[in-house]
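Dear Dr. H.,

I hope your travels went smoothly. While you were away I took the liberty of generating a structure for the chain from your last submission, since the lab meeting agenda had it listed for discussion. I wanted you to have the full record in hand beforehand rather than looking at slides cold. The sequence, exactly as received, is reproduced here:
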Amino acid sequence: MTMTDIISITLENEMDLVLAHKRSMKVAEKIGLTVATQTAFATAVAEVARTVIDHTNMGNLQLAISGSHPRFSLNAVIVFGPIAELKKDDEGFFYAQKLVPEFSFETRDGSSVIEMAMGIPRSLRMDALKIAALKAFFLTEEPLNAYEEIKNRKNFLSKVTSEQELEIKHEKFINEKKSEFISIASHEIKTPITILKAYTQMLVKNHDNFDPKINSIVDKLDQQTTKLTTLVQQLMDVSQMENGTMTYNREDMAFNAFMKDIVDVLTQAHATHPIVLNLGADTHVSIDKLRMEQVITNLLGNAAKYSPPGTSINVDTKIENNFAIVSVSDEGIGMSPETLGLIFEKFYRNKEVMTTHPGLGMGLYITSKIVVDHGGKIWAESTDGKGSIFHISIPRK
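The corresponding predicted structure, in token form, is as follows:
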């Protein structure tokens, strides 16, 4: 049976009983039923609503039109939680059953459902267009009183909240699936890349046996394989961070010795940029050495990447408020205040450098997560066109 809902009213208190009666009268009136029929239908609805409200504040009334041409009925459906003491022959329903020709009480999907129906005379020529117009009328009609206005606003806010919760759940599900895909894909890609890198290194070691043109190709192959290896590792890191599976193997070590070792290695990797290390007071820290090397490597790599060849990169350390501080400054292109506020977001890339400097915008996101997971902080200062300074803090041991 086709049924078109016209009005829905939650049955929570005595004020809703008044609404149920008035709205039932109004629907019957708009259909064109006689005053006697309007009164009988509205009274039956009110009697059932009163009994339901006496037992629970979780009922719901639906006024609807059911049937098809040429036989249509005005229906009132009241749904509420199962109440053992309420049956069809309850005295609260006795009078209602006398007023309407159709009355049923049953249980559906764990809920109690009372349905009342009254035939609409064929002389009123009810059809789909009239039903649609009736529904549209009550969608736009002004509230009967202040209580209904407040109730409507409350219901609207509840609906919006429910929709937002569904959107959040859906977004969370999509993100989980995305992270799962990235994790699986990264692991699958890592093995062939590792093998490719190994063969490339073998070719690099045999430079003397090749023609200079071949050596140039081998060097480019090695560079691109390294970039691909880094990209896959970053994807795996992001996946682990979002899945909560990132682990750290911390060890105690002298801070200055750690910084000197990593800068010595990176000085060779960035031969086009003099790296100046200025060590402050020494201390001990508890860190995952490989992960913290990843942090410093990324900061120095970015400094070199966004600075003209030949310009210096300064690395300064100091102790401040029980934290070891590392500052990496460059003489590069710098950043605008807008960009500065977004650089630690996942996949963020400034449009101005997307075509000139390759990357996916994961490096600083991963760097910030590693630093924060160590109990530290990361922040930056920059002037557009005049370079940047990145700072990280690590708790002292």
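Two observations you may find useful: The first strand starts at residue 3 and ends at 11. The longest helix spans residues 146-205.

With kind regards,
E. W.
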